[in-house]
Amino acid sequence: MLEDARVYHDATWRLLNLPTDSSQLSGVASVNKQDIEKYLRMLGQELQQRQITGEILLADGAVMLLVVQNREVTKDIDAYFKPEQANVIREAARAVADREGLADDWINDGVKGFFYVQPPTEQWAEYPGLRVYIPSLDYLFAMKVVAGRPQDIEDIKTLAHELKLSNAQDALTLVKKYVPERLLVPRIEYMIDEIFE
């Protein structure tokens, strides 16, 4: 799906707060599985009206919620959009936002900066107008390790358990499978060592 995934070294995470109730226009909120499915279905409907079948790759908290199921809510929906579809997906997402009272960028592609190579993917869902993919859990593990945000630590531990990683060396070997060596700064190795102490 992401044949032309590229490295975006200067990408920043744009974390959004999504309302679970369409009457909420701002403030701290979160989305659950039903909210995500509802908004993605609506996005597909908007894309279908534009005579396109969009493809997105979910990442971060949405995958942790939907696949790993280590939480009931997440505060944002991060996704990678195919570059040739990015503008029309954003346009369709704005239409959903207008109708549901969401922020214009309720689904964001700030995560694109953490796709260093083509990730192994599988289709998670298909709605009319939209195919939704997820990365393999080992790829998600590597992304979270590289991001290394404080809020990622518990997810990294959960993914390590899911992947049956029992030591820092195995974890680092997995990260190196997907992340260029030049990006593996000492902070990453220290964090992995600390997690497996």
Keywords:
197 residues; alpha/beta; Beta Polymerase, domain 2; 7 strands; 42% helix; disordered N terminus
Total of helices: 7
- Reading the helices and strands in chain order gives EHEHEEHEEEHHHH
Rg calculated over all Cα atoms: 17 Å
Quaternary status of these chains? single chain
Structural class of the helices, strands and pairings? alpha/beta
Q: Can you give the helix content as a percent range?
A: 40-55%
| Total beta strand runs | 7
Major sheet: 5 strands, mixed
How would you describe this structure to a colleague?
- The protein has 197 residues and is α/β, with parallel strands linked by helices.
- It has 2 domains: 105 residues, Beta Polymerase, domain 2 (2-Layer Sandwich); 58 residues, no CATH class.
- It contains 7 helices and 7 strands, in the order E-H-E-H-E-E-H-E-E-E-H-H-H-H.
- The strands form 2 sheets. It has a 5-stranded mixed β-sheet with strand order 5-4-2-7-6. A two-stranded antiparallel ribbon has the order 1-3.
- Helix 1 packs across helix 3.
- It is elongated.
- The N terminus is likely disordered.
What is the topological layout?
Elements: E1 31-32, H1 33-49, E2 54-59, H2 61-68, E3 73-74, E4 77-81, H3 86-100, E5 107-108, E6 121-127, E7 130-135, H4 137-147, H5 153-162, H6 168-178, H7 186-195
Helix pairs in contact: 1-3, 4-5, 4-6, 6-7
Brief summary of the model shown:
With 197 residues, the protein is α/β, with parallel strands linked by helices. The protein has helices spanning 33-49, 61-68, 86-100, 137-147, 153-162, 168-178, 186-195, and strands at 31-32, 54-59, 73-74, 77-81, 107-108, 121-127, 130-135.
